[in-house]
Amino acid sequence: MGTKYKCLIVDDEKPAHQVLTSHINQCEDLECVGNAFSGKEALLFLQKNEVDILLLDINMPLISGLEFLDMLAVKPITIITTAYSDFALESYEKDAVDYLLKPISFGKFLKAIEKAKIFCKDRRESTDVVKDNVLKIREDGMDILLDMDEILFIESAGNYIKIYVENRSKSYFVYGSLISIKTELPDYFIQVHRSFIVNRKHIVKKELGKVTLLAAIEVPVGRKYQILIE
Question: Angle 121-195-10 (CA atoms, 0-180°, nearest 5)?
Fold first, then answer.
């Protein structure tokens, strides 16, 4: 079994979590990585965790599901799960891939998941490591090959990452997270801050709280990461 698709359930009702968790557990390629009972909980979870598929209720207190989607700079692949049929059009306008009415049978759930997985696969292709120490990324619909030795550092930017490369006038902005990209990089890349990974080969100066890279680029070093650069 390859990498599982990570699912987050967002619903203010416990029975809905129980049903969806049961459906997820019946699928070998799915994993429930979180259960949020409000939009606020979900926002906090997404700030710290990688999610492929969002299973989202609409009618929740304080922040509705649709309002929650508007708050996300980048949305996970989203399946709406609700007892109300009134919001289908608006949900699709917000890029939901399916709209499931409760009670949700396993068969309907599975059909929606199959749609979601197609979109997930497209996203995963945006950052893919290939042979010969080359990182393949997809930006603006084009595949770009980057020599990993030339990468200076990588910065987290919400649900995206920015890749800065030596002797290039631009950075590359692609969907992904430090958590996902970190496992694909050679061991000379080190995380020095919750938002930064640097290429150790390009460090020219080490100080308390920061490192300096080529071209006098300064990157902050978090307190708990300081020992890694000494």
Answer: 50
Q: Which two tokens stand for residue 51?
A: 């999610």
Other beta carbons within 10 angstroms of residue 221's beta carbon come to: 23
% of the chain exceeding 70 in pLDDT: 93
| CATH number attached to the domain at 5-124 | 3.40.50.2300
- Contact between residue 17 and residue 61 where contact means Cβ atoms under 8 Å apart: no
Identify whether the C-beta of residue 56 lies closer than 8 Å to the C-beta of residue 80: yes
Q: How many CB atoms lie within 10 A of CB 146?
A: 16
Whose structure tokens read 């929740």? 60
Helix (H, G, I), strand (E, B) or coil at 195: coil
DSSP state of 154: E
pTM value > 0.70? no
Where exactly are the structural domains of the chain?
5-124, 127-229
How are beta strands 77-82 and 53-56 bridged, if at all? Answer: parallel
Q: 127-229 has which fold?
A: OB fold (Dihydrolipoamide Acetyltransferase, E2P) (2.40.50)
DSSP 8-state class, residue 75:
P
Is 7 in contact with 24 (CB distance < 8 Å)?
A: yes
Residue 127 has pLDDT above 60, yes or no: no
